Amino acid sequence: MKQIVELITMELSEAFERAGYDRALAKVTLSNRPDLCEYQCNGAMAGAKAYKKAPYIIAEDVVSYLKERSCIAAAEAVKPGFINIKLGEEFVADFLNQMAGDENLGLGRTQKPETIIVDYGGPNVAKPLHVGHLRSAIIGESVKRICRKMGHKVLGDVHLGDWGYQMGLIITELKKRKPELPYFDESWQGEYPEEAPFTISELEEIYPAASAYAKEHEEYREEALQATWMLQNGHRGYTAVWKHIVTISVRDIKNNYKKLNVEFELWKGESDAQKVIPDMIEDFKKKGQAYLDEGALVIDVKEETDTKEIPPCLIQKSDGASLYGTTDLATLIQREEDFQPDRVIYVVDKRQEMHFTQVFRAAKKTGIVREDTELRFLGFGTMNGKDGKPFKTREGGVMRLENLIAEINDEMYKKMAENRMVDEEEAGNTSKMIGLAAIKYGDLSNQAAKDYVFDVDRFTSFEGNTGPYILYTIVRIKSILNKYQKQGNSLEELRCMGACTDSEKALMLEVCKYNMIMETAFTETAPHKICAYIYDLANAFNRFYHETKILAEEDKEKQKSYIALLLITRNVLESCIDTLGFDAPERM
What we know:
single chain, alpha/beta, Gyrase A, domain 2, four-stranded antiparallel β-sheet, 20 helices, 10% strand
């Protein structure tokens, strides 16, 4: 199904051509002056030089061919050469009815599905998830859902940090505390225990203790480095400990991500790429793609068009150790072998932009990925507190993610209890749904690359541009629809008719933008566009609601049209929030 702006553009194209001008001038956009018109075309301005005519004259010529077109209620040439357009009510109603009859709400899904991998999450095992993991998870999940909504095959990869020095630290500290364990007995020949010799709580205490001790004791640090080397070279006992670490960490990580309604199709870690690295490095050397620089192996990635210095991509340190860039390149090799992705999107802190510029260029230069594979860096800004600094606990420490979620849920529960919105039995589950909407919408309504202030009071408000306000709007619509059915009416085979009031038409026009907004959000990898849209849509509905007696309307045909409009509005809102990664309760 075509977007409504495409249908209007087709009409304008024909009018431009009939008036003797190039069809390509007929680009239609949403009006930037909605008080004057609904859509506009500035093509006459662009064509003035080519046709040696005043833009206003060209606009008038085109407008003369737009009269009596059913899709256009009014078209006006406005100096210096704008064409202002208002749409026909029946045309808009028919468009909405087509949307309502389509399982995808008129969204034009791609005819050429791509395989897309979204790399987001990035937690380290043995460490609790904290607020720093929030943005990658929330933005990445939404990007995955947007791509999937457009008909693409999408895989989300958590890309665990499960390899390296932190593993050596944990092994060393565990050996210090429990030297009697069989993992540290070099003569042990039997099977190792199936149960881990530590809980997740103990593990989360072991790592920071070991890290702090290593900074003060060089011999301990050397022991941890040696343990890391032995693990990475296949030490049997250390490998068994490592597997325990990963197993219980992943179980805890999954539980925390579940609370955010975030899921991953791939649970790959840095360790999975290790087997690829030796052959990859040898291949780089043989082909002359990498060279030694002060003992380290690097790939030169600078380009003539660079306006700033782009350092070489470091592949291997002088002591033979691998780096993040090494692992990222090896992971791309694995992804190419397993999935042949058409694009890979990395949702990471924007401060890593230089790193990914180096990795992407190295990947293309060495032929690790195909030339037409799109590698996309989606960098996000910092989540700050009201003081403008990175979000902390009241005591000044880094807040655990589960504690932040619990704090938001508690706040929503209190507000619901104060207002007695639902009975106590429902309040627990409903507060979690609203709390998740508060967190996700609060984050996603900001452009990803920008820093933003995480304001609990504002995000949990039922008024203004917030998740709870969006949910309250959806629940209000559901309540009206339920009451309509309880009056003995059916929600089947309802159709929108022409608008009777300005607020009704405004709502209809907002709903019509759905497929255009979703396509824009996909093209620009921009979840915040969806947030801005549903806020406008919610405002349009609430204005219509306050100005219209829906259930008290005596004209049954008019009432059916109202209900049809509410149905499509609800469906569009629910489709959008599902794409953003949260749901609406039945009652609030």
